[in-house]
Design brief:
Blueprint: H1 2-40, H2 47-68, H3 76-79, H4 87-118, E1 122-126, E2 129-132, H5 133-136, H6 139-156
Antiparallel strand pairs: 1-2
Helix pairs in contact: 1-2, 2-6, 4-6
Length: about 170
Amino acid sequence: MRALFKAENLLVYAEKAAVILLIFAMVALSFLQVLLRIFFNSGVVWLDPLLRYMVLWAGLLGAVLAARYSQHFALEAAFHFIPKKLHRPLQVCAALFTVFASVLLFYAAYKVVRVDLDYASAAFYVGNTAMSSGWLELIIPAAFALIALHVLIGVFRPADGKEAGA
């Protein structure tokens, strides 16, 4: 179990780094676009669609991190009315339901991305180069897979959130 928790911690570190890089890049690119529009009455044509995809990536990675830290589902209201001995079984049931829903959403998102890749649909063009919407949307099934993984690992995580020996 320790190795699994350590591997998950490395994955969480990478997810956090990706979110931070995406946010800094979005701020810098948005600022550049504003400056170009103000001072040159122009802008980079493909930058706005790219920023939309970056927002999608950052948002879904944020959802993945929320799932890791059990901030995606809130059962606190129900816990006030239910005996303490039922809290853990309810948490496990909610986690398993989340994993099941995430797997279904992963499959649906995978099918959509697969179609986009098969038909080579372009999200936007950078010069003469088409940016495939399938590759840009790949974060959607990946995020649902990561959410399922984090929630499933969370079922085995001790209630205090500290892994034994990690």
